[in-house]
Amino acid sequence: MNASEIRKSFCEFFESKQHQIVSSAPMVVKNDPTLMFTNAGMNQFKDIFLGNRKPSSPRVANSQKCLRVSGKHNDLEEVGHDTYHHTMFEMLGNWSFGDYFKEEAISWAWEFLTDVLKLDKSRLYASVFEGDKEMELEKDMEAFNFWKKYLPEDKIINGNRKDNFWEMGDMGPCGPCSEIHIDLRAEDEIAKKGGAELVNKDHPEVIEIWNLVFIQYNRKANGDLEFLPQKHVDTGMGFERLCMAMQGKKSNYDTDVFTPIIDEIAKVTEKKYGESDEVNIAMRVIADHVRTIAFSITDGQLPSNNKAGYVIRRILRRAVRYGYTFLDQRNAFMYKLLPALIKSMGDQYPELIDQKELITKVIKEEEDSFLRTLATGISMLDKIVKKTKEGNYKVVEGKIAFELYDTYGFPLDLTELILKENDLVVNRKEFETEMEAQKQRARSATAIETDDWVTLMQDDVEEFIGYDYLESDITITKYRKI
Ligand code: ATP
Ligand code: MG
Ligand code: MG
Ligand code: MG
């Protein structure tokens, strides 16, 4: 099955179970101070779970565009380096609002994966919430017993609070979840080492595909849990991961969701995917990021200097930087990937076709401008290298690296990379001190993203305390309560 067919079969399956198919909400969230980007299919149903809105149907399903680059869900560091975390991805989901519960959710998930898609049952695992002393909760025996109908006990794995208990925030709806994992390793490897102990251990071929959340509690302001009068189901399955499993691939980037884009990157840059680790990582980063940028532009979010726009700009720059450093791209090239992106996703997302010209123009302009910045930074750095070497020093002042970062948008890891080629290093401690000092200087006001949502209370004022520096040169806005 190709990707479009897989997506379609998911919707048709849940339609046959009386679900209403709804559209994806925008990926860039406007008018919600507590959330910058949609990070899960259930975001658009938040008000239903909180009891503030009635659902259009007690059962819905869809494919949702998600972005995980900020707040509680930030996968950016992984993207490109592994083969199954994206910044933007599609989440297939089905929901019950006070309607069906664990039994149906589990049996339909199983039916869809094994009967409809015919995935190999012997490669599947389920995880269930093992209970938690501190929370005074027992193991989720209900879920365990339903899974026992389909899986031997040794393939039903206990999961802790981190992986198997979902909470919206400090307060509000929450509950245990049950995840489905798949072992994609070769037969002989499976024979050597069973998969159970590899579940949830970041193994690239034993991966989580579907999360079934059973919303049965409400966490009160005092921290106590109470049973909800109505129980809900919220599920999310990684579409690109499902495509990988279905198409017998070992990487999301080898599925038809990504191959047209990767092929085009190879053509444009005259490099080969598979040539070296560095080239592979760079190509994956670019293939991933170009989707994110194109989709955020179609959502009306252009790269800019603040908030969501700034996050998007940093993602674009991350891709340019990988292209520059590992694929020798000295000129704008990402904008050339649009036709390939449209080829892979245009039929499901016609907005890509409608806005092709705008997307192309914006990406090219951003690339050109960042490349100019890089060129300035690099020529400055050349002078610094020369001076440092002349003085017979080995260490470049952190202050200089910070100035390159702060004034020229020149990321620390790129500075370090160039210095390393010249046998030099940066004084990182000094760099961090400068960064800290800058944090203290910056001031602004919006909301924080540490949970799926943050409930802003009355008189709950937050003060901007600056940007958090991460290796990837993406910044996370930080706030503290005042
Ligand atoms: P993981 O443990 O792999 O990071 P998760 O537990 O954070 O995944 P959930 O929040 O449970 O993910 O989201 C539901 C599903 O969405 C996951 O089972 C997975 O298939 C998919 N998914 C999550 N994060 C990503 C991502 N960054 N890129 C692609 N798919 C993802
Ligand atoms: Mg995750
Ligand atoms: Mg997980
Ligand atoms: Mg999960």
Which keywords apply here?
two-stranded antiparallel sheet, binds magnesium ion, BirA Bifunctional Protein, domain 2, binds adenosine-5'-triphosphate, 2 domains, disordered C terminus, 482 residues, single chain
Question: Would you kindly provide a written description of the structure presented here, covering whatever features stand out?
Answer:
- The protein is of the alpha+beta class.
- It folds into 2 domains: 3-252, Bira Bifunctional Protein, Domain 2 (BirA Bifunctional Protein, domain 2, 2-Layer Sandwich); 258-380.
- It contains 16 helices and 15 strands.
- It has helices spanning 3-16, 46-49, 102-116, 141-148, 161-164, 187-192, 239-246, 259-269, 277-298, 307-326, 338-345, 351-354, 356-390, 398-408, 412-421, 428-441; strands at 20-21, 59-67, 69-70, 73-74, 88-97, 124-129, 156-159, 165-167, 172-183, 206-219, 225-238, 395-396, 425-426, 462-469, 475-481.
- Strands 1, 2, 5, 6, 7, 8, 9, 10 and 11 form a 9-stranded mixed beta sheet that branches. A two-stranded antiparallel sheet has the order 3-4.
- α4 links the parallel β6 and β7.
- The protein is globular.
- One magnesium ion binds next to β10.
- One of its GO terms (molecular function) is aminoacyl-tRNA deacylase activity.
